[in-house]
Design goal:
- This is EVE domain-containing protein.
- By secondary structure, this protein is of the alpha+beta class.
- It has a single domain, classed as ph1033 like domains (ph1033 like fold, Roll).
- About 20% of the residues lie in helices and about 30% in strands.
- It has 4 helices and 6 strands; from the N terminus they run βαβαβββαβα.
- A 6-stranded mixed sheet has the order 2-5-4-3-1-6.
- The protein starts with a strand and ends with a helix.
- The chain binds a DNA duplex through loops.
DNA sequence: GCCAACGTTGGC
DNA sequence: GCCAACGTTGGC
């Protein structure tokens, strides 16, 4: 059982969209970064908990928690020429990209990026650095610290 | 396999 | 809208 942070742009897909989705679930599609892909493919497991983080918006922040309900599956959008996520080099024989399915758990009073940056006890979280990873691990202790700050 | 050029992300 | 950081591409 591990902890993660998934970034999303709320204008594209917000935690409210997740909450109002069918079964409050969604397939986390469109990850097109190898490091993030490797986490999804190799390490994210059913039952893992996920901070949902809103980026590229007014107040970047962790806004809630979801849980992984399905491990990695091939992301079908890589084969869809009409999709933004189309990848001409991906084939059905050798798919490049995967996604997992997550389910809404709860909203949190937003834990803002500014707050996280100001918290000296948080040192490992990739958000702390100038890191653009869209899927990043959260250590057990930092997960607990962040939760406890609420 | 190196690395310069280029593109993208994302906070501000 | 700017720009720093960093990932990707492609020529050699």
């Amino acid at each position: 059982m591990a902890y993660w942070l998934f970034k999303t742009e709320p204008e594209t897909f917000s935690i409210d969209d997740l909450k109002s989705a069918s079964q409050q679930r969604t397939f986390w599609e469109g990850i097109r970064n190898y490091q993030a892909r490797n986490f999804l493919r190799d390490r994210v497991q059913i039952g893992d908990q996920v901070f949902i983080y809103h980026s590229s918006c007014k107040i970047p922040a962790i806004v809630g928690i979801a849980v992984v309900v399905k491990a990695a599956e091939t992301d079908p959008h890589q084969f869809d020429m009409n999709s933004d996520y189309y990848d001409a080099k991906a084939t059905h024989e050798a798919p490049r990209w995967v996604g997992v399915t997550i389910q809404y758990q709860q909203h949190l009073t937003p834990i803002t990026l500014a707050e996280i940056k100001a918290n000296n006890a948080i040192t490992e979280l990739a958000l702390k650095k100038a890191n653009r990873l869209s899927i990043m691990p959260v250590t057990d202790s930092e997960w607990q610290l962040l939760i406890a700050s609420r």
